[in-house]
Design goal:
With 182 residues, this protein is an alpha+beta fold. It has one domain (2-177). It has seven helices and five strands. The protein has helices at 8-17, 27-50, 58-62, 94-103, 110-131, 156-170, 173-177; strands spanning 67-71, 81-84, 89-93, 139-145, 148-153. The strands form two sheets. A three-stranded mixed sheet has the order 1-3-2. A two-stranded antiparallel ribbon has the order 4-5.
């Protein structure tokens, strides 16, 4: 989980590189898309803070808008958390999060780590219930012939925006979750 140690720009670049459409992007377009997604995440974080979200106790705020479920058993695929659009539910897999805690070389405030995952998934709630999927806000051309043009969004933009949302609350996530750095 070295994602915690990366700057937001480094993390965003890594996420964008994993996108299937990455090879179609110029360096200028990459930077533009990263800046766009980060600005959406930060803007939504500021709105939530202004409307009463306490990043130290996000559950109280989140429960007003969606269901929260904490599962102790591992998921069928290796993920830490997810947002179920159909059920308007954030699910955290505590066994997977516990593996992160065991794998880090610092003493972790587990509640703060859980808060990071809750906030990340809450951003996805906002996407589907308020602002629209960030991955569809900017599209790139994947095929063009005469008057026919096919464009696709980049899934990674949603993840970049969600990480920017979280980082607006946590700052440096390693410092935020470090139990000894309060």
């Amino acid at each position: 989980m070295n994602e915690l140690e990366l700057s937001l720009k480094e993390l965003a670049t890594n996420l964008l590189k994993r996108d299937i459409l990455y090879s179609r992007l110029t360096h200028t377009k990459q930077a533009e898309l990263i800046d766009f997604a980060i600005s959406i995440g930060r803007k939504q974080a500021r709105k939530c803070l202004a409307s009463g979200l306490n990043p130290e106790q996000p559950e109280l705020y989140l429960k007003k808008y969606c269901q929260l479920e904490f599962k102790k058993h591992p998921p069928q695929i290796p993920i830490y958390s997810e947002f179920e659009v159909k059920n308007n539910k954030i699910i955290l897999y505590l066994s997977e999060i516990e593996e992160i805690v065991q794998g880090l070389e610092i003493t972790v405030d587990k509640k703060r780590l859980i808060n990071l995952f809750l906030l990340h998934e809450f951003f996805h709630f906002l996407e589907y219930n308020s602002i629209g999927p960030v991955s569809r806000m900017r599209k790139i051309t994947v095929f063009k012939f005469l008057f026919l043009e096919i464009k696709r969004g980049l899934f990674s933009l949603s993840e970049i925006a969600a990480h920017a949302f979280v980082r607006e609350f946590s700052g440096d996530p390693v410092v935020y979750i470090n139990a000894n750095a309060k």
